Amino acid sequence: MTTYTWPEILTASEKVNWSIDDVLGAEHRFDFGRVFLPESLARTRELDFLDEKERLALNHIRAHGYLHTFGLVEEFILPFVVDHARADFGGDDDRTRALLVFAEEEAKHIHLFKRFRQRFQDGFGHRCEVIGPPAAIASAVLAHDPLSVALLILHIEWMTQRHWLDSVENAQELDPRFRSLLRHHWLEEAQHAKMDTLVVQKLASERGAEQRAAAVEGYLQIGQFLDGGVAQQARFDLETLQRVIGRRLDAAAAERFVVVQHQALRWTFLGSGMTHPKFRATLGQLGGDLRGRVESIAPAFC
Ligand SMILES: [Fe+2]
Ligand SMILES: [Fe+2]
User: Residues 241-282: pLDDT tens digits?
Assistant: First the structure.
């Protein structure tokens, strides 16, 4: 069993304190001569029908989409956390305060990602097409059992940890400003993963075995819904890239592009969260073979 506690999480979250201007102030610019996203997430290398310059443009498009998609998911994390804090006001002061910090940080991240988008487009010189709108995605996700949603949020929080630690922390080739943005985001997400672990445990304790199994099915359904979203994003990225490089790919190359990039997006937003050891450990605590159920599906998203 995990041993996170609300007072410890609150203390840790109070130590991390940055403003949007620290990360992306008026004086900060991106270096479009460098890659933004690590290759393990972008997977542009196997697209051998693109030259180096075209692959760099795709990396930038993917980096833009990466933060846009984070913004999308944080749009439903924010109301979920606020509702969860409100459900138990006055019960535990550390818990209430920690959850409100969680919500405030996600609101700040949404704001930061919007500023990033504007700054990125100014430098990139092209508009990147993206999935949405955020409100429609949020209402589709929040229609599920809160335990399903909390599981998805837990997956997202651990996924963020994994992206930084496995792929970004030591990637010196990345644009330093974009890397710093990911670092600041990761610093706050570390506390979110612990808080959401406690939220999942509380919601699970209020449900019987059958309801917990249904909630895991709900989590998988949301995953499927998001998979449809990232498949659409891969097609949008193809359109954006063709506009940026000023040429159309032939049919075989276009098809290969969508397959490779859809799988790259699946790994980025689905597989890397579903297979995170801490996420799997929490699934294991739900009983039955709910962990095995998710583990049997995860390889399709890796
Ligand atoms: Fe965030
Ligand atoms: Fe978060």
Answer: 999 999 999 999 999 999 999 999 999 999 999 999 999 999
Residue 7 has which token pair?
């007072």
Calculated CA dihedral for residues 249, 133, 40, 78, nearest 10 degrees? 180
One-letter amino acid of 139: S
Using a CB cutoff of 5 Å, list residues around ligand 2, an ion: 189, 192
Tell me which ligand sits closest to the C-alpha of residue 108.
1
Ligand number nearest to the C-alpha of 109:
1
Distance from the CA of 48 to the center of ligand 1, in angstroms?
34
Q: Which listed ligand is nearest to 113 at the C-alpha?
A: 1
State how far the Cα of 264 lies from the Cα of 19, in Å rounded to an integer: 31
pLDDT digits (tens, 9 = 90+) for 287-301: 999 999 999 999 999
Query: How does DSSP classify residue 250?
Result: P
Please give the distance, rounded to the nearest whole angstrom, from the Cα atom of residue 105 to the centre of ligand 1.
7
Distance CA 10, CA 146 (A): 23
